[in-house]
């Protein structure tokens, strides 16, 4: 499977939400991972829901996993209610549901996935260190 990377603006906004695309996150060995940040448009301190993984933070759930999306839509339509689902990505919180509740959603492409450079090595000590560095 190949997925064409689509150029995106560095920032965007939605009602009540500010979005920063591909924010650089430096990790201890000098590599730079890329994160998308979805946050309330009001100043303040907010709790963060962070994901770090290989599923390409910019690949919509519907496009990347169409069979699973259809299964979710058929069996749990309540999970899709209350959102346009445009920002919905596999195994991550939907910013359209969480940001209005006062959370920041932070999605980090793990090393070698999506827009983060490097070699993908799932469940490795390196990935664990990267996850720790992203939290810090």
Overview of the structural elements:
Strand 1 (11-14) and strand 2 form a beta hairpin. The protein is an alpha+beta fold. It has helices spanning 61-64, 66-75, 77-80, 95-98, 125-135; strands at 11-14, 17-26, 32-40, 48-53, 104-109. It has a single domain (11-135), classed as 3-Layer(aba) Sandwich (Rossmann fold). The longest helix is centred in the last third of the chain and has 11 residues, at 125-135. A five-stranded mixed sheet has the order 1-2-3-5-4. The N and C termini lie far apart (33 Å). The chain contains five helices and five strands, in the order E-E-E-E-H-H-H-H-E-H. Residues 1-7 have low confidence and may be disordered.
The CATH architecture category equals 3-Layer(aba) Sandwich
Fourth-level CATH superfamily: Alpha/Beta hydrolase fold, catalytic domain
> What is the average per-residue confidence, as pLDDT, rounded to a whole number?
91
Q: Would you give the CATH topology?
A: Rossmann fold
Number of domains: 1
Helix and strand composition category? alpha+beta
Low-confidence stretches: 1-7
What is the terminal separation in angstroms?
Answer: 33 Å
Query: Taking Cα atoms only, what radius of gyration do you get, to the nearest Å?
Result: 15 Å
| Major β-sheet annotation | 5 strands, mixed
**What oligomerization state is this entry in?**
single chain
Question: Proportion of β residues?
Answer: 25-35%
Helix proportion: 10-25%
């Amino acid at each position: 499977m190949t997925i064409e990377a689509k150029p995106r603006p560095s920032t965007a906004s939605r009602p009540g939400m500010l979005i920063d695309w591909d924010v650089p996150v430096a990790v201890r060995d000098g590599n730079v991972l890329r994160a998308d940040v979805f946050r309330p448009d009001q100043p303040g301190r907010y709790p963060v829901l962070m994901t770090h993984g290989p599923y390409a933070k910019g690949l919509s759930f519907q496009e990347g996993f169409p069979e699973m999306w259809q299964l979710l839509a058929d069996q749990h339509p309540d999970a899709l209610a209350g959102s346009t689902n445009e920002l919905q990505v596999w195994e991550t919180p939907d910013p359209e549901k969480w940001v209005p509740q006062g959370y920041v959603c932070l999605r980090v492409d793990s090393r070698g996935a999506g827009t983060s450079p490097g070699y993908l090595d799932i469940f490795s000590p390196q990935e664990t260190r990267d996850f720790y560095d992203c939290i810090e």
